[in-house]
Amino acid sequence: xxxxxxxxxxxxxxxxxxxxxxxxxxxxxxxxxxxxxxxxxxxxxxxxxxxxxxxxxxxxxxxxxxxxxxxxxxxxxxxxxxxxxxxxxxxxxxxxxxxxxxxxxxxxxxxxxxxxxxxxxxxxxxxxxxxxxxxxxxxxxxxxxxxxxxxxxxxxxxxxxxxxxxxxxxxxxxxxxxxxxxxxxxxxxxxxxxxxxxxxxxxxxxxxxxxxxxxxxxxxxxxxxxxxxxxxxxxxxxxxxxxxx
Length: 245
What we know:
Layout (H helix, E strand, L loop, with lengths): L11 E5 L4 H12 L3 E6 L2 H9 L3 E4 L5 H9 L6 E4 L14 H29 L4 E5 L12 H21 L5 E7 L5 H6 L3 H9 L9 H12 L10 E4 L7
Parallel strand pairs: 1-2, 1-4, 2-3, 4-5, 5-6, 6-7
Helix pairs in contact: 1-8, 3-4, 4-5
């Protein structure tokens, strides 16, 4: 996908969850658009590849609040943040465990809030007007079987986005979330390869297909960019029309 119309030259952007999936694609598009990228993830091999591309890499266990705080404290002032790190543990609603719920919330909500709060504090302290994009999910907007913890975490992320928008707007910081449908990362391609699972999901999407990672990354770059200078507090579905029904 062509990202030549975005120009992030001279801008520092942090991407969490950068070592795979949507986060990896966001990093690629930001690099192609001239950004200085700080890539945060947990896969050392993937991070090595990103370092070879010129990224500043940060290996972090997002659920480790102490480690995360220490890494965030060393970051310079940024102009952008993409909160993309996330996990999912599938359980039937009658079988939800405290451990699974805590794990999902620790990464998808607590870590995302800590990262955004730290980035925003440095922006505010330096008088920098910036943009934050939280990567949520269609799971915050609709009920998905066996996804109680994940749906709850992404609903919390959208609520967090609105609060951050309200508190930080006076400082010129915009905060939005995007809500993708199933996105064809390598892991998702395997998870949705079974026709009995795949076909009903596709039938519920008016466009009749799942999203490619580039189709999610491009709207994220738009929200980061000056082209979205009056957009804040939005939860943007990237779902081929799934949540319109």
